[in-house]
Amino acid sequence: MAMLDIERDYDAIVVGSGITGGWAAKELCERGLRTLVLEAGRDIDPQRDYTEHVPPWDMRFRGLGNRRAIEARQPVQRRSVSFDELSHVFWTDDVDNPYSTPADKPFDWFRARQVGGKSIVWGRQVYRWSDLDFEANLRDGVGVDWPIRYADIAPWYDHVERFIGVSGEALALSHLPDSVFQPPMEMNVVEAAVRDRLRAKFHSARRMTIGRVAVLTQPIGERAPCHYCGPCQRGCVTRSYFSSVSSTLPAARATGRLTLRPHSIAHTVVYDANSGRASGVRVIDARTRIEHEFRARVVFLCASALESVRILLNSRSASFPGGLGNGSGTLGLGIMDHIKWGGASGVIPGWEDRQTIGNRPNGILVPRFRNLDRGSRQSGFIRGYQFQGGAGRVGWEGRTRDPGIGAEFKERLTRLGPWVMSLAGFGETLARDENRARLDDTLRDAWGIPTLHIDVAWSANELAIHRDMTESAAEMLEAVGARDIVRRTRPSVPGNTNHEMGGARMGRDRKSSVLNGWNQAHEVPNLFVTDGACMTSSACQNPSLTYMALTARAVSHAVDSLRRREL
Ligand SMILES: Cc1cc2nc3c(=O)[nH]c(=O)nc-3n(C[C@H](O)[C@H](O)[C@H](O)COP(=O)(O)OP(=O)(O)OC[C@H]3O[C@@H](n4cnc5c(N)ncnc54)[C@H](O)[C@@H]3O)c2cc1C
Ligand code: SF4
Fold first, then answer.
1. Please, what is the Cα angle at 125 between 422 and 538, to 5 degrees?
2. Cβ distance 563 to 35 under 8 Å?
3. Ligand nearest to the CA of 226
């Protein structure tokens, strides 16, 4: 039964409370708008729900998880690197939330359905884009041109970074601009040695730096610096890493203008053909299954890339039979993720009397060094990749399957193994229309909402990038004196990098894109999509910092437009 909830008429509705929804809520509330955040999942109370300090011996399955239950309910989600016995509660139930793919094109769709979304489980690596990235499509004739350049977004990167807190080292690279940094985390002794040896061999052509990460090394307000406990994917009661639960939602709440409604699954944006505007959002209450409609003057979709695409595809009307704002026919096209797992690892001899103390929630970064200029141009592929990784001593965790039994075996496991340095590549994916999501003709989720058919595969360009990652990682390890080098040759499954992007791209032309340069639907001016769906290309940097900056920028534009009575 549909109930029209006209009591609650808001200035703005935000769908989703993850990384982008939290930012939209904060900025809208701080700019004076009464804002309703509709969140499909449950509410989160850090004191009750976070478990980062629970040791394995206090876990029911000693950290291995309830494999039978997980296989039954979360066979996709369990493939994420952040999924474990305790963090599994932050992931979606795959049975209630199905999707389909072609049989020969698997896609790992990771979803975190609760207040905070994936901001609770993310890896927190944050990197700016540059004009090398914003100009890439135009330069290469791939997809459509970004309607913005670095100068448009740079002040918004500043704005976001000051609030979230980013620790890192300034390098003054034009293709990877520096952020507003807190002091960097320290490299361990072997990473520092590898960095110095790389500098000696490759000079400035290949650099290594500590990861740029949204984890505090200095306090911000009530958020404490990180104490290196380690399992961030289970939450952080000291609020040391950025999540919407720890940072943006409290800021929105402090204004007194935020209404957060958990258990509210948005399935359509309502379009008013008379005004040519979105009038509100329809949700199904996840617990009561009653349908509600909420109205507002402006709507922000921040449900994560593919979920926002799904909502738009489901929002069909006589005016937009192919999905809301889809006059261009491009809705659902150009789905991207980063290709990963190209790389290598090797033993670095020496320093056997040294070990790391604590669990630094961060690794190292080798910024992109391919196709930056004429000198680094490659004949086998366009675009590039960066390496993340680090050095550590092999501990007992990696040797539990070694043969052995009894006291001698346990004693052997207490001794640390050699230092191993790993380099794992993240490669750019091209925005190709062949990689697409559409509604599945028959498949419905547990609430009867049509779900997605996701059809994505790597192209020859991504596979060439992957091969090059592996060879260049091995080359670098060899150059720094590593032995027993192991090459990683199998590419990741699309989606597995957790960086879903595209489907409602930004562009200059309403005939070839869904959104304009302000993340605003060309055809529905009071509708904004600011999650990864808006991405016109993927670069090789982790994308969420760019989503946050785009979200804050879009809110500023929306509020200014509302004040001028243009929306
Ligand atoms: C393991 C892991 C590691 C990652 N590491 C990094 C990293 O190091 N750096 C980086 O840049 N990115 C990283 N990412 C990606 C990052 O988490 C996402 O890019 C980011 O969270 C996207 O923000 P979002 O707001 O679009 O989506 P989310 O943060 O996922 O939030 C979406 C919210 O919308 C809600 N929602 C969904 N559908 C509906 C609906 N129909 N109605 C109402 N609400 C809905 C969800 O429940 C969720 O709360 C990582 C992701 C994972 C999973
Ligand atoms: S390692 Fe740092 S950021 Fe991660 S949970 Fe612990 S204190 Fe928080």
1. 95
2. no
3. 2
Residue-level pLDDT at 412? 84
Residues of the chain with pLDDT under 50: 1, 7
- C-alpha span between 421 and 429 (Å, rounded): 26
Q: Of 217, 183, 215, 153, give the one whose Cα is nearest residue 517.
A: 153
d(CA 469, CA 480): 17
Q: Regarding beta strands 166-167 and 385-393, do their DSSP bridges make them parallel or antiparallel, or are they unpaired?
A: unpaired
Report the pLDDT value the prediction gives residue 2, as an integer from 0 to 100.
52
Ligand 2 atom closest to the Cα of residue 234 is 5
Cα dist. 333→100, 342, 373 in Å? Answer: 16, 26, 30
Rounded-to-10 torsion of CA 17, 19, 24, 27: 120
> Is any ligand 2 atom within 6 A of the Cβ of residue 227?
yes
Q: Looking at the CA of 238, name the nearest ligand.
A: 2
C-alpha distances in Å from residue 515, one per residue of 74, 413, 557, 560: 34, 56, 14, 18
Q: Is the CB of 86 under 6 A from ligand 1?
A: no
Does residue 236 line the site of ligand 2, with CB under 6 A? yes
d(CA 500, CA 207): 27
Cβ(87) – ligand 1 distance below 6 Å = no
Q: Is the CB of 112 under 6 A from ligand 1?
A: yes
Which atom of ligand 1 approaches the CA of 113 most closely? 47
Q: How far apart are CA 110 and CA 18, in angstroms?
A: 13
| Residue in the block written with tokens 């075996």 | 409
- Helix runs in 39-122, H state only: 46-49, 67-73
Give the model's pLDDT for residue 409.
87
Ligand that lies nearest to the alpha carbon of residue 229, given by its number in the listed order: 2
Instruction: Please tell me if the CB atom of residue 240 comes closer than 6 angstroms to any atom of ligand 2.
Output: yes
Listing DSSP states for 398-411 in one string gives GGTTSS--HHHHHH
Q: How far is the CA of 304 from the centre of ligand 1 (A)?
A: 5
229 lines ligand 2 (CB under 6 A): yes
CA-310 nearest atom, ligand 1: 41
- 13 alpha carbon, closest ligand: 1
Residue 297's φ and ψ, nearest 5 degrees, are -85, -20
Tell me the domain boundaries of the chain: 2-124+242-336+433-457+497-563, 166-230+339-427+458-488
Backbone angles phi and psi of 217, in degrees to 5 = -110, -10
Nearest CA to ligand 2 atom 2: 226
Residue 119 CA, ligand 1 centroid: distance in Å: 6
Q: DSSP labels for 487-507?
A: EE-PPPPTTTTS--B-SS-B-
Question: HSE of 549 in the Cβ direction (CA atoms, 13 Å)?
Answer: 25
Give the architecture (CATH level 2) of 2-124+242-336+433-457+497-563. Answer: 3-Layer(bba) Sandwich (3.50)
Nearest to 487 by CA among 402, 423, 429: 423
List residues bridging with 4 in a β-sheet: 293
